[in-house]
């Protein structure tokens, strides 16, 4: 009896070990790590793990947003997950010393010192590595790359080096207000930002930077200021007036930069800009001979109008234009999470307030974009009335009210910047971690620029774009963006010539209605 019990006990232990062993080796029970989808949706059947073929035509693959025009789709959600990490981006960067050794470019010691110690830059991004040598060699250059990758430094550093060399070689002192380089921008905040970068790079050098923001152009025309100027940074309108009236003279300019060139080449600016650019003797081919008079043209932007070549051929030989572009140009930024929330217009303020308060708790600055100045005003007032430190910035503000607002947001005096697309072009909002599109942009190029306010090379911490989708027109744009995300292809209709697009739509609508708009009354 006792022997039988012992035998049963032994067999029981054996069965226990056998069961455990079988449990371990069963392949079905091995827990594999779950792959994070490229696109996550509230309805999991629309989750995406492997992109569809890039040549898939719109309408041939299922979209999570295909039913978003119906009222029952409210509260639906779609997320583009970040697929590239901070480490991936840093791995593509090149140490400054290694780059200079490879390219045999000699940079002024003070410039290098300021680059490292003032701007805290020790390595160049991929687009900087490609563009710096081209600009340094005096080519006409188009720098076309995603926002936040360091395009300003890509042209600024070699231009400053050339200005220093030219000043050292010049025999006679130049007259006042005769710059060697001109940097033109569409907006005041961007001009101020570029001026600050140039001044930091030029600390303890003899290079003189002058920034003109506009808003007081009449005063400068009546009571002009005269001084040594090597680099002139200005908005296009102010510079055009001051040059026309002779306050600034352009005969010594050897470098012309169009920063945010897509906006400057828009129909809103192109006529005035084209006339202004014809003042410069742009060289027909690059030359290293300093005795030959020739001006270099540089364009920098994250998006470009389709009629760029048509506009530029009036001032340069477009065959001499060297293009430096990024593989991510006109694509969704892969290192930023992007959320699309389908909701009613009435629920947007409450949702906005909840999101902003979460950001404040995390001490993360937020930028809220609206399509119109009136909406931007409303968002700012609504947030301030609910205890949020918000500052408003839009193009309808007077200069004396607008000046300094962006800088105060950057310095941390406000938690939220409520703005229109005037705040989406080129501004280096390195402190911001969250962009909220209270109004979803109706043009894909605007969406690209808004997303580019975060995840910039100066701040590669995890960042987020949250989009409120509340109208049929917004849904139509989102569907096109979703299709590009699912195929890994280019974003559609990235034509930054917004005024031209609007004019064509107006004409199309009027023709459909049987109306004819006289040519002289066209916008």
UniProtKB/TrEMBL annotation:
Q: What GO molecular-function term can you cite, just one?
A: nucleic acid binding
Concerning Gene3D superfamilies, the annotation shows:
P-loop containing nucleotide triphosphate hydrolases
Using the record's annotation, list all stretches that form the Helicase ATP-binding domain. Answer: 132-322
* Signal peptide bounds: none
Q: Which UniProt keywords apply?
A: ATP-binding, Helicase, Hydrolase, Nucleotide-binding
Q: Which residues form the Helicase C-terminal domain?
A: 335-502
- Tree of life domain: Eukaryota
UniProt name for this protein: (Mediterranean fruit fly) hypothetical protein
Organism annotation:
Ceratitis capitata (Mediterranean fruit fly)
What gene is behind this protein? DDX28
């Amino acid at each position: 009896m006792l022997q039988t019990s012992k035998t049963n006990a032994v067999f029981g232990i054996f069965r226990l070990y056998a069961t455990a062993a079988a449990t371990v080796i069963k392949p079905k029970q091995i827990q594999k790590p779950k792959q994070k989808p490229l696109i996550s949706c509230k309805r999991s059947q629309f989750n995406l793990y492997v992109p569809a073929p890039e040549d898939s035509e719109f309408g041939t693959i299922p979209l999570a947003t295909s039913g978003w025009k119906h009222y029952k789709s409210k509260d639906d959600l779609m997320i583009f997950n970040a697929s590239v990490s901070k480490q991936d981006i840093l791995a593509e960067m090149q140490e400054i010393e290694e780059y200079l050794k490879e390219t045999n470019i000699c940079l002024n010691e003070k410039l290098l010192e300021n680059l490292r110690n003032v701007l805290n830059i020790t390595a160049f991004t991929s687009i900087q590595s490609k563009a710096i040598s081209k600009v340094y060699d005096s080519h006409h250059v188009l720098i076309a790359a995603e926002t936040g990758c360091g395009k300003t430094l890509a042209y600024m550093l070699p231009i400053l080096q050339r200005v220093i060399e030219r000043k050292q070689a010049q025999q006679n002192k130049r007259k006042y207000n005769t710059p060697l380089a001109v940097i033109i921008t569409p907006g005041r905040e961007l001009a101020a930002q570029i001026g600050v970068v140039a001044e930091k790079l030029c600390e303890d050098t003899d290079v003189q930077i002058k920034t003109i923001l506009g808003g007081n152009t009449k005063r400068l025309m009546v009571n002009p200021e005269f001084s040594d100027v090597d680099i002139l940074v200005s908005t296009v309108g102010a510079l055009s007036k001051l040059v026309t009236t002779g306050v600034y003279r352009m005969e010594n300019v050897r470098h012309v930069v169009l920063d945010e060139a897509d906006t400057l080449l828009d129909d809103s600016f192109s006529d005035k800009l084209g006339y202004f650019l014809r003042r410069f003797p742009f060289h027909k081919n690059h030359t290293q001979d300093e005795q030959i008079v020739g001006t270099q043209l540089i364009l920098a932007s994250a998006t470009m109008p389709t009629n760029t070549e048509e506009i530029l051929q009036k001032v340069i030989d477009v065959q001499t234009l060297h293009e430096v572009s990024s593989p991510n140009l006109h694509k969704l930024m892969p290192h930023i999470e992007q959320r699309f929330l389908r909701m009613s217009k009435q629920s947007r303020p409450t949702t906005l307030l909840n999101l902003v308060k979460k950001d404040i708790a995390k001490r993360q600055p937020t930028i809220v974009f609206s399509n119109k100045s009136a909406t931007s005003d409303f968002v700012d007032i609504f947030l301030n009335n609910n205890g949020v430190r918000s500052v408003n910035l839009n193009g309808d503000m007077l200069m004396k009210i607008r000046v300094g607002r962006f800088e105060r947001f950057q310095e941390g005096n406000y938690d939220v910047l409520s703005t229109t697309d005037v705040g989406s072009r080129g501004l280096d909002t390195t402190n911001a971690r969250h962009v909220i599109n209270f109004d979803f942009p109706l043009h894909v190029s605007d969406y690209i620029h808004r997303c580019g306010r975060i995840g910039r090379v100066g701040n590669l911490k995890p960042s987020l774009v949250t989009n409120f989708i509340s109208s049929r027109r917004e849904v139509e744009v989102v569907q096109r963006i979703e299709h590009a995300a699912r195929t890994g292809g280019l974003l559609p209709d990235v034509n930054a010539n917004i005024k031209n697009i609007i004019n064509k739509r107006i004409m199309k609508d009027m023709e459909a209605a049987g109306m004819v708009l006289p040519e002289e009354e066209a916008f």
